[in-house]
Design brief:
The chain has 6 helices and 16 strands. Strand 6 and strand 7 form a beta hairpin.
């Protein structure tokens, strides 16, 4: 059975949520999508995820949510991580960390899909070995899921590429997140695993990784602390659509996907209380 899976790149702030809210339903229908996976770790003011946003993303049509290094920036997400099977934090965090190390979803067609977020260790905070972690997880997942997808949330492209080859033939797809810049290296690896180094960002692309250009430039030039307000211009949804055969578990096609919101320039993204959408740290 052929399944079309949409993987959405890091959703950044209110503009990112808005383009998903307004357009995901039509995208699912137009491209016959069977499952939607979204990285949402930047969706709450640019850093973290709240219960309210988690709930809204599911209503918009997202089936599974993954998180990365900003997973615990909002405390109320901890209870969500503990109770639900459709959201996961990086699997190679400490075993004592809150949350589940993979998310799972049963498609309407029947097959069960699992996604495992892994976090890189190059230029990032300490974490357990992603290689040892996925080696231990895969035998368990084979008993629960028909298709396994791995998200590599990492800074270094070499670390993502290496994981792709390490898992070639063992999982159906490996895609990268975290850098917010889509790469042009989508391919099907020799043993049948779909791969891309980074699927990009969902949010304002007239920006520096979704933040207003001026505030980021000020920080880089002066090294003085300043809030990084979320940018609001040129909204785009970045991701991939990968077609996987549930019988062979191999990827048959992988394509970059981008949707540009032509209405974005006329929308206000300030909150109801008039406060700007921003986070106090930078990626």
């Amino acid at each position: 059975m052929k399944l079309n899976i949409l993987c959405i790149g890091d959703i950044v702030g209110r503009p990112g949520k808005r383009i998903v809210a307004d357009n995901l339903g039509a995208i699912i229908e137009q491209h016959n999508i069977d499952c939607v996976i979204a990285n949402a770790e930047n969706s709450a003011g640019g850093s973290g995820l709240t219960y309210q946003i988690y709930d809204k993303l599911l209503k918009y049509g997202v089936n599974m949510i993954t998180l990365g290094d900003h997973v615990f920036k909002k405390k109320d997400i901890i209870a969500v991580l503990e109770k639900n099977d459709n959201i996961a934090r990086p699997a190679n965090f400490s075993a004592h960390a809150a949350g589940k190390c993979f998310a799972i979803y049963k498609c309407e067609k029947g097959p069960v899909i699992a996604v495992v977020p892994l976090i890189g260790r190059v230029f990032m905070k300490p974490a357990d070995s992603p290689y040892d972690c996925i080696d231990a997880l895969l035998p368990k997942l084979e008993q629960q899921a028909d298709i396994v997808i791995v998200e590599m949330h990492a800074e270094a492209t070499s670390e993502k590429v290496s994981m792709g080859y390490y898992l070639d033939g063992r999982v159906s797809c490996v895609f990268g997140t975290h850098t917010h810049v889509v790469t042009a290296d989508e391919k099907i690896l020799p043993k049948g695993t779909g791969y891309i180094t980074d699927i990009g960002m969902t949010g304002a692309h007239h920006s520096v990784l979704g933040r207003k250009i001026e505030s980021v430039l000020k920080n880089f030039r002066t090294r003085m602390p300043c809030p990084f307000e979320i940018a609001t211009e040129d909204l785009r949804l970045n991701g991939i659509i990968v077609t996987i055969d549930s019988n062979t578990k191999k990827a048959e096609k992988i394509s970059r996907f981008e949707f540009k919101d032509e209405k974005s320039d006329s929308i206000s993204y300030d909150s109801d209380d008039g406060k700007p959408d921003y986070n106090s740290d930078f990626e």
